[in-house]
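input
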Amino acid sequence: MRILAIDTSGLVGTVAVSDGDMLLAQFSIQYKTTHSEILMPMMDDIKRKVNLDLSTIDAIAVAKGPGSFTGLRIGSATAKGLALALDKPIIPIPTLDGLAYNLYGNEKIICPMMDARRNQVYTGIYTFVPVVSEEKNMERSFDMQTICGQCAVSVTEIIEKLNSIGKPAILLGDGVPVYHDILEKELEVPYSIAPLHQSRQSAAALLALAKVYVRDGLTVSADEFAPEYLRLSQAEREANEKSGRQEQTAKEKGRRRMEVHSTPGMVRIREMTAEDIEDAAKLEKTNLGKEAWTAGQLLEAMTRDDTIYLVSEMAGRIVGLCGVRNVSGDGEVTNVSVSGDVRRNGTAYKMVKQLLERGRGIGIENYTLEVRASNAPAIGLYEKLGFKNEGIRPGFYDDPKDDAVIYWKRN
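output
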């Protein structure tokens, strides 16, 4: 069985391919480059060097989270797009499980930690237990035992958990150097830190664990796959804090999503995910016809580090879409589409207003957009949001022919 593995959950970008029990290739980079820039070139390089025909891939393994929101979005969207195109299943691997699998066969307590900021870590606690064999031979195999499943907790909370277990531990992950001082001060059990070749995300380890998942039937279709963030994004947390609300837990967020889906007429604005692409593209097509962005264009745009894309959701249906791209501090509003049945109820205003607020978080100072001169409702919306008319591009639009009005909202 051939499996392609992708992990972009942290600073490391890593891709690997296996064929049965053989690791054909692995490409990993840990450097301050964006995954949207390096992921596809890494995959292309592997394809060329091992003469890999993607149609021969049987499944795609991907780190499903938690981790960097942008990184997870890029990896998830890439895996989902490939799975849809190739009609292959996805093997979703919890990020912390994949990290722990770097230390396969180690019978100490294994605690991967990823820095989640604000004195929190994404973490879990694992160990490997020998598999009892009826055959009398010297070969040993191991099963990974989950003592504490992956979660987002404070550093002190995971330290207390490790102390309560009372056994020697091995620590790994990018959270270890960040919180080394507090770990050194408060950990009461003997511990070591994994060496550099085992201390970060590895697509090869993901492949090894993916084989176990396939054996146990733990695969999903591309339509079923969704990343697991465990907590809200920084933008959502800051918005909640600004309005005086407490940060939601992943469980609370899921409950509220269910409530929104079951409440007719209630619109929820959130970040667009790969699962929304098809519906968003259909909405674009309905509103804009030949000028609409395709699903492929939306997917490519959404996975960039310099963009933000939001959708409005009502009763489980995508009724709005908007996006912005940061170009050297200027935000180019690329998409604004709203379903006809929710127009004139404030959905577009709330959605675009939130887009502009979130754009500040990725360094946008000023905003610009183009709109058909004949589109009076859209012009009214933009002017209500503070945009000013700064020029005309005659005959810019076709079918029907129309001028484009250039609007700016300057800081």
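quick obs: Residues 245-264 have pLDDT under 50 and may be disordered.
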